[in-house]
Every structure is written in C-alpha cells, then in structure tokens.
Amino acid sequence: MDAVELLRHDHRVVEQLFRDYRAAASDAQRRGVVDVLIRELSKHAALEEVLFYPFAARVLDDGQVDGHLAGHVPIKELLLQLDRCGVGDPAQDQLMERLASAVARHVHDDENQLMPLLCRQADEQALRELGQEIDRGKQRAPTRPHPHAPDKPPALALAAPLAAIYDRLRDRMQGRPRT
Prior knowledge:
The chain is mainly α. It is 79% helix and 0% strand. It contains seven helices and no strands. The two termini are 19 Å apart.
C-alpha cells in the first residue's frame, strides 16, 4: 500500500474501534477498546508527524500541512485524559464522544483536502516507499499520547524514539495490549 492507502486504512480501523466501544457489553470491554484505541491513534499520530506530514510539506506548501498537524493537539490531549481513566470511570464516555468528533474532523480534513492534493502532486513511487516506511515504523512508534512533545523535526526525531521505548515499557508493566 502507498502511504495514503495505509493511513486511510488506519482511519477505518479507528472508526471500527469507536463502533466497538459503543457496542461493548461491560466496563471492562469498553476499557479494553479504549486501550487499543489509545495505542492505535498514538502510533498513527506519531507516524504522521514523523513521516507523512514532513513528506507532504516537501511536496506541498508548508502552510497546507500545518493545519493538519495542529489538529493532532486536541486529539492527543483527549487521549491523555482517556489514558488516565480507570475501568468504569464516568468521564470515559464523554471523552470518547469528544475524541470521536475530533478524529472525524481530522479524518475528513486529511482524506478530503490533504491526501487528494498530495496524490495529485507527489510521485507514486515516493508514496509507495513512504507507505513501506510508515508500515515498518508501526513497530517502533509511541503507543501512548504525548501532547506536549515536539511535533516537528528536528526535535521530533529525537523525542519520538525515546517516547516509544518508555511507552512500551509502561505497556508491559501495566499488561496493556500489544501489537
């Protein structure tokens, strides 16, 4: 898959996780979905920030990319709040609704504005290579939200790998789902 196809696939997975959350029969099942959603959205956001948006900024005007990057901040803030919730926390449902709305805006903007523009202007081979790099990066990406970490290179290039190591250690210690 090229980068755009891969990121669109990620969007569909996240949309399914929101449906799974609404269909869950217990607080424990809902919390399990939240944990997976936090992991998947954290990895997705990190890979967009480290790989996809810098690529898009090279192909397009930086100004066309900055708004998409800024859209990650409220998502990561909500993910952090969700990460702090425990099983049965009454705030979880409201946070999930707010997150679903923020993610829907992000997906709409990326898929209807940035991605079509990028597909028209970027080299197909470069998009395929970027897709492979993003796919490989999923194994090394942070699994938790870091809303206050740098989101642009060069500082991001240093922060993301350290965050990923820390996240994976916390995931193991807390028995969180892994991929």
